[in-house]
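pinned: reference chain
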Amino acid sequence: MSTSVQAPARVPVPVPLRPWVAGAEILSYPAAGHRPIVHLPDGAAALTYCKGRLVVTGPRTRAGYVPAKEVRQAVRIRLRPGHALPVLGVPLSALTDQAIGLDELWGPSGHRLAEELRGLGPGPEPVLRRLRGALLDRADGQRTGELDNAALVYAAARRLGTARPHALPEIARELGVSERHLRTLFTRGTGLNPRLYGRIARVRRALATVTGADGARAAGEAGYYDQSHMGAEFRALMGVSPSAYRAGRLPEPRPCGTPPNA
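pinned: its structure tokens
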């Protein structure tokens, strides 16, 4: 997701993986000299393979702008909110605004997987097939309790991520749990508190309409009270106003791995 990345080539997610994976895609990055690559705020974790590295990126609370790099491709598998925890094996709250090697989470098995990927043939398709197989292996045999918690978190995330989100107490009542319990599960399972998750969902919707001329209409469709509300929240998460973003006046790019709040 970036202003200088070609439209991702989305690839099918096998049926057994759909409860765990929100989507899989091949990203093509442009040559140096283009505008910075923009990593959008994101309420989901992802597994990315690029230039021989297999990296887990946690939820991102603010946009990151990094210098355009040489032409290359990356494979990314975006995990469903709530379902990343059982697959990755750690609370997502430990991964917020972080990018770490999978071997740090999976140990020797993560290291072996990265080695296997580096030994595959050219092109992203073999990498995708092997990654999907590895995730299926991790998904199999998960404990019932963890799966139940993942389902609760995902159900809450879907309600919080709409243009007209439900309040957390209402969601908790619908799901048959206490608000305190749901908040704890949600933060552990997504790495974000419910309010911040909703803010990120709104700004991602705003990005789909920010190029339009009618700012008030775009604000309403994205779920904001008004255009002023959208502008303030957009600036807080994207680092620039909607008009500046639309015009390409972006923050100074910073190297990959720089914390978004630094």
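why pinned: Strands lie at 9-11, 21-29, 37-39, 46-50, 53-57, 64-66, 72-79, 99-101. The longest helix spans residues 144-160.
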